[in-house]
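Page 47, continued from p. 46.
Same chain as before, 408 aa.
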Amino acid sequence: MRKMLGASSARWVVSAALFAGSGVTNAIDYPPDGLVVDLRYRNAHIDQAGYAEPANAHTLRFTLGYLWKISPQWSAYAEGTRVSTLFGEQYNSGANGKTKLPSEGDPPSSEISSAWLAYDNGTASARLGRQYVSLDNDRFFTPGLWRQNPQSFDAVAGALKFDTGTTIKYYYLDEAQRSVGHDYPDPTQREWDLDANLIHVDQKLPLGTLTGYGYFVENDTNAKYSWRTAGLRWTGKYAFGDSGTSLGWTAEGAHQESWRNNPLDYRAHYHLLELSYGFNWASLKLGDELLSGDGKNAFSSPYGSNHGFDGWTSQFKNTPANGLEDRYVALLGKLDSRLTWSVTFHNAFAERVDQHYGSEVNVLLNYALRRDLSVELDYADYHRRTFGTDERALWATLEYRIGKQGGI
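Result:
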């Protein structure tokens, strides 16, 4: 947090003073005091074409945190995360040199994953320190809690919520602690030095919520990820009386261009169109997501989620130069409030040329054994057409959790 003691601290003080007299309601909610414990064991079995043997990654994540309610207005939170491997490292973690095995990005690591001080006077909120940043569907900024090592940011956050249904959020990001973990041998991968300003505005409408955002990011560690992105997002859900059926939708569009120290010169666009229909226990979802490319450069989202988009085998960690269009259909639901399930079919295409990259099926089963203990199975099967490699993966997870990681 090198710059946090300078310009970032000044931003926080000014923001807190401004919010204190603004006459609006609180926009960041904090839980009561308490212990946070997350113990997650996961086995990842990955069978990928081109490798003589599959990978078996047995990893254990232990997160321990505590939230202090110092006074009615002030809160503090600290959290540490330790990721360990069990039964030997039978996979390529990116840090162990086992390149003859398929990769799974969960290397052993120890770190302070979250540590912040927050002020909340009932009309506004501000938070200073290492924290998780999750915006909308996590496409652009995420804590990435699917990975054993989370992603956090040394940041200043502020929020206002007006009686008109408008919510304004602002973040200044100083440094990104990447999901490869603090002990990763390559410093340019484990920490990114940033100068980023994120502006996010939500407006409630008679039908849904309209969101406008502007993300201005200078990355001094990996300059190719310096860009400015602006977009609009409309989400909503309409229930058909008391029938239990509902219609949900998302329509989003964004424009991105290289910025400041970026050595590349490009402009790209993004859209997400999604429609769902169904009951409380099951629904059908259709979607189309596009990240454009010009043949040399493409729309990028390096601070967002990889696992949650374009299939779980991470064939598209970086957007192909010819762009990426993911057309997908999903069936998802819940049984007796304990069993959650989903089946998703992806078809990936190039945006700039006529090219079918491949297809993938994802299956999820999550069962809550009790409120604080759950078991989950995730299966992914990618079939290559012209991009990536054939891959099958199965993740088996057992997780015990008290409270929420990050304290929020």
